[in-house]
Amino acid sequence: MAAAVMPAAAQQGQQTYSSSELVDTGHKFFGEMSGGLASAIERAAANYGQPNGYILGQEGSGAFLGGLRYGEGTLYTRNAGTARVYWQGPSFGIDFGGDGARTMILVYNLPAVQSIYQRFGGVNGSAYLVGGFGITALRQGDITLVPVRTGVGARLGVNVGYLKFTPQATWNPF
């Protein structure tokens, strides 16, 4: 439990994950559906640098103008250990459909593991039938989260919303 309150940057040494480490982890996690993973991670690295953590998990979402998303996974950090995380949140926009996805969330500038437990806002767009692959960015203060998703379902639209990260599962997206 001590690792949960220890700053993510508390120890010396390499504190971020390289693109090649993330691509290797992503290929193991996503399996066959990881065709665009390397380019998505390279694009994120070009925009945000190297993450100091990542989350591997799964999620489900659905929308008809307004939508909801629920997920769960494990946060991995180089020097502060791991933590179980759950996320949920509403979205609003021109958005229709539903999907289930395996998700890798790249975490940038996380000062401590406990800092993940808050709301992160952003804009999301989806356009796929049967299966798809997507990347977006969410932000709160200096912390940036970049979800990389691959899943199945049918989804079309653009929305704005947030994800609330919690240490326990909850049905309340607000």
Q: Tell me the helix content.
A: 10-25%
- How would a crystallographer describe the biggest sheet? 5 strands, antiparallel
Q: What distance separates the N and C termini?
A: 27 Å
The residue ranges in which pLDDT falls below 50 over 5 or more consecutive positions are 1-12
Q: Mean of residue pLDDT?
A: 84
Task: Let me know the number of strands.
Answer: 5
Structural Rg: 15 Å
Overall morphology: globular
Tally of helical segments: 3
The helix/strand class is alpha+beta
Task: Quote the beta fraction.
Answer: over 45%
Task: Encode the helix/strand succession as letters.
Answer: HHHEEEEE
Overview of the structural elements:
This protein is globular. Strands 1, 2, 3, 4 and 5 form a five-stranded antiparallel β-sheet that branches. A hairpin with a 2-residue loop joins strand 4 (137-140) and strand 5 (143-166). The model is unreliable at 1-12 (pLDDT under 50). By secondary structure, the chain is an alpha+beta fold. It is 16% helix and 56% strand. It contains three helices and five strands; from the N terminus they run H-H-H-E-E-E-E-E.
From the structure above, extract its key features.
single chain, 174 residues, alpha+beta, five-stranded antiparallel β-sheet, disordered N terminus
Task: Please summarize what this structure is.
Helix content is 16%, strand content 56%. By secondary structure, it is α+β, with helices and mostly antiparallel strands. The longest helix has 12 residues, at 19-30.
